[in-house]
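In this supplementary section we document a worked example of the pipeline. Step one takes a protein sequence of length 327 as its only input; no multiple sequence alignment statistics are reported here. Step two produces a three-dimensional model, which step three serialises into structure tokens for compact storage. The input and output of this example are shown verbatim.
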Amino acid sequence: MSGTTPKMEIVWMNVTLFCLYHIAALNGIYYFLTLQIHWKTFLWVCLLQCLSSQGITSGAHRLWSHRSYKATLPLRCFLCFCQTIAFQNDVYEWARDHRVHHKYTDSNADPHNASRGFFFSHMGWLLVRKHPDVISKGKTVDMSDLEADPVLMFQRKYYLILAPLCSFVLPAVIPWYCWGEDFYVSWCYATMLRYLVSLHFTWLVNSAAHMWGTKPYDRNIKPAENILVSYLTMGEGWHNYHHTFPWDYKAAELDKYSGNLSTAFIDLMAKIGWAYDLKTVSPDMVKRRMRRTGTATTKSDSKEYQQEDRPLFIERYCDSKNEKQLS
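The serialised model returned by step three reads:
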């Protein structure tokens, strides 16, 4: 793997598109602040934001990138649809980049290498040509499991039709057609502002959660526990834990759902039988890892981490018959 960073080649088409996206989103903010948005449009955007977030967190990330649980066909179809609304590349490409990110975190082979600064890891990586290491290492990642999923292959085949329709067209047309929202207002708010907010929240996981926060599980890596990012992304900001135990479907060690609504969603799906084989980490493994590589910033992080201090959330799920014990 190359140890040097070649001169960045700007992709001006992407720069232009993102500038236009942000201008339209600023108009959306203006219409919102001046109360020109219909209350139904506001609720519509909230719904779309929740759906697209679950498509990324519970779908592209925890299900397909890490295979931290299994899903029935109805749930896979639903999450694939939600991920299409997000318009962050098809699931196959999203998962491939994410697997490379975990295998070569914060190196030149990492698509959004945080070592190259906040802006690059946040969105700059989409505005320049990929580092040669990203391309070469990406070709070595095994994607056969996703290639065998007909739902993902259907999405990938028709993505350039489905994604603009689900993310750009319908979000603006439905408020205009169903309750008389001004079409341009609907476009700027329900489509562009919603889309940009979704993107920036996701990008914060790549940038802020790799730079600021605590490291109770592994002090030797950049990813950190960032509570703000966690709340903005429905649970993806507990990043020091996630990079230490990437196979855990919770992507966090928590005793409640606050800051991790994606885990609540997966648990709900498990209760109705649509999600199963949920993988988690034993309390003993967490405790040993914290003692070995973590930073003792709180009582639960220290060597005095006792039996009674174990998060009840983990203990409850370690006893579940639907989960696999990893020790």
